[in-house]
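Help!! Second protein's tokens look totally different from the first
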Amino acid sequence: MNARTNQEQSRSGNVKRRPLYQSAAEELAEIIAHTPPGDRLPSEPKLSDQLGVSRATLREAMRLFEERGLILRQQGVGTTVVEMPQVIDSGLEVLESLETLSSRMGLTMTMGDSEIRLRSPKAEELEQFDIPRNARLLEIKRTMLAEMRPVAYLVDVLPEGILPRGEIEERFTGSVLDLLLERKQPTLSHAKTEITAVSASPEIAHHLNIQRGDVLLCFKGIIYDDSGNVVNRSESYFLPWTFRFHVLRRFDDVMNVVERNRKTNDG
């Protein structure tokens, strides 16, 4: 058992079994607070010595600040203190693009790295889009940047021909929804969205400059046209500390509720 392990056990006992990484996080918070945005923190070996904890405990403490967007860890570069990004606040009652939301807030939203390709449909997509086996799908993947900082990774899939690839390559700035609305064909009717918390895959973690396994907000959406056909399927991954989503919920008229309950009881 090495000296640092003994020190950790001693400190753990002093705080009555409080998780050691929490104590380390409090001390780390002071270091981060006194480090200007853009500057790097000391290396992990130096920090672990300074805090008197193992590197494993240090990494657990650092993850708390990384998930809040206070530090950015990059392999081969180190850990940089970053300025807290402005939170993008939006209701979920109306479907809007990130560009529309950011513009309303005065933020600059741009597209980072992207991939546009035609591919064969998967088995479930044949049924979902109601297309033949020889049909092809247009898949668009891209990273969205707010003030030049990665905040979301978006994936859209739609049948070939709905959005001409040439038009996308010429005019596309990040929002498939805005292009569909501008074209007005097909006529969009409504959308369904499933919201979950997921762990970042290696691919998404790479694009968002985060660690694999970090928690993300995931919106899985389907857009329908006025005939009930699926026009677009999307997966949107958001850094939770840069977005705040909310839903406006209205109270039903009290008398209507009472009347419905009375009819139910009478029946």
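Here's the second one for comparison:
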Amino acid sequence: MRVSRTLLLVVLAALLLGCEEDVAGPDPFQYPYSMWGVLNPLADTQFVRVFPIEPLLEPGRPEPLDVRFTSLDLDTGEERLWRDSVFVDSTGQVGHVFYAPFRVAWDHRYRVTITRDDGAATWAEVHIPERALLILEEPDTTREVILPARIEGEARNLIQSEVEIYVSYVVGFSPPPIAVPIFAFYRHYIPFDTNLRRTVDGWTFAINLTRSYYPVFGSVTEDSNFIVDEGIRLLTVTFRTVVADDAWMPPGGVFDPNVLIQPGTMSNVENGFGFIGGGYELSRSWTLPFEVVEQTDYLPNR
């Protein structure tokens, strides 16, 4: 599963597909709500999706829930009241996304609580990670082309790390007399969590650009229109990861949607189901000189 470009959908994209089935746990109806979301210190607005836990799965009414939803900064005591945003999906199901326009603070602890009109409440506590920096170092071309990088700062938990190799290749030419190449584009993703190494100051990793060519070439050759003699042009190399709080720990360390949708599998929600995480995405791309790319089997993007 790839990292989402919107952190709210990181991992939770798969989880939310199964939220309507939260009622399938042992004696779930004792709890009032299920909550899912991410508090992101880089976002101007925070979002949490809420599901009332009811005995019957019904479409619901397209009107705000009669509840009070708040977030409390446990370090400063500042409390904010959130609003309900109601939507109806393509199947007619009514959804509730609560939101508040503010930025959560680095390394602060928050409690988000939803309270029903009868006083029943569901809540979760979230620790926002500290800020980290992703630093790209100069390529090492001693033998193969290696792209070293490091992450500085107190990033204790990195998840869903990946490398994206973005390339283009020729699939034909325009009619003569000009004969301009016609390009297709391909993005190749390499899971990278296991390639990160913890250091005293953060994390280090290195991307072997030379060896990345072979799986890219294998995938591109599946396109029958690929003109092999024209080669593969390297456009960008991008690294992404999510700096997450310590609660993002699925069973066995694997983000398997089929496992995570089961109620209580990975949950920090009290008196309810779900997961409220704290985290943000780090992402940077290399701009490589032509002479570096030419030391691999890729072609520079001239």
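Reply: Different proteins will give different token patterns, so don't panic. The longest helix spans residues 209-220.
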